[in-house]
Amino acid sequence: MSKREPFILTSQLHDRSFLQRVEQAGFEPVHAPLIGTNYRVLRPVNLEKIESCDWLVFTSQTAVHAYFSQVSKPPTQKIAVVGSKTEKALNSYGYRASFMPSTFSADVFVEEWNASPHVNETVAFLKGNLAKPTIEAGLHSDVTAVCIYDTVTLHEHVETITNLIQNHPQLTLVFASPSAVEAYVAAGGTVQPNVIYCAIGHITKRAMTDHGFPVHVMPSVYTLDALLEQRIHLEE
């Protein structure tokens, strides 16, 4: 492993300290997010729908921030989350999750939720505009879905990634969401032989393989820290 091999993160990064851990591992951290987000203003009619439900469901930390940055009073509902980063974002507002799936993915969430007593309770699903229909279509509960942020492609960072690929014998490229993969491909990103491709989550992996990308690293625990650890030991 080159001591200054670029380690490129293509997702938004709420915990900037991760870049320091990448550097401490001997890589050159590069943050080149392929997607950005714009929060939607929560209208009173949507707030009423949300507040009438028994549960709030978040599958991303962006959704947590988009919601709680606009809501001043504490929620009366129970809260369910998918993913440790989503849970950490929730905790930063002083709240705790009452339900989490055993694996950090929406499809496992659906399976375990439907097998729980909560299936008879109502759900407000706070999501982004590109969210897959997994939650809405899969839950046997009465689901009210409210889109609270929009995802936009940051095309300029694809050029940054392309230049790094052309100027380094090897680099690591990390995708943490299917939408980042789609944004990369839509902006002209292609498979390159000198890239170590990494995925967070099996749904992201599926998006990568659907577009012909190999997946060299995918940790069983769907976190960036677990991915970094596995990447460090890849060539041992």
From TrEMBL:
Supply the name of the protein: Uroporphyrinogen-III synthase
Q: GO:BP terms for this protein?
A: protoporphyrinogen IX biosynthetic process; uroporphyrinogen III biosynthetic process
| Gene3D superfamilies according to UniProt | 3.40.50.10090
| UniProt keywords, alphabetically | Lyase, Porphyrin biosynthesis
Superkingdom of source: Bacteria
Spell out the reaction equation it catalyses: hydroxymethylbilane = uroporphyrinogen III + H2O
Q: Report the EC code(s) recorded for this entry.
A: 4.2.1.75
Signal peptide (from-to) = none
User: A single Pfam family, by name?
Assistant: HEM4
What species is this protein from?
Tetzosporium hominis
Specify the Tetrapyrrole biosynthesis uroporphyrinogen III synthase domain's residue ranges. Answer: 20-229
Protein task: Catalyzes cyclization of the linear tetrapyrrole, hydroxymethylbilane, to the macrocyclic uroporphyrinogen III.
Q: Which family does it belong to?
A: Belongs to the uroporphyrinogen-III synthase family.
Could you cite one Gene Ontology molecular function of this protein? uroporphyrinogen-III synthase activity
- Show the InterPro entries listed in the entry: 4pyrrol_syn_uPrphyn_synt_sf (IPR036108), 4pyrrol_synth_uPrphyn_synth (IPR003754), UROS/Hem4 (IPR039793)
* Pathway(s) per entry: Porphyrin-containing compound metabolism; protoporphyrin-IX biosynthesis; coproporphyrinogen-III from 5-aminolevulinate: step 3/4
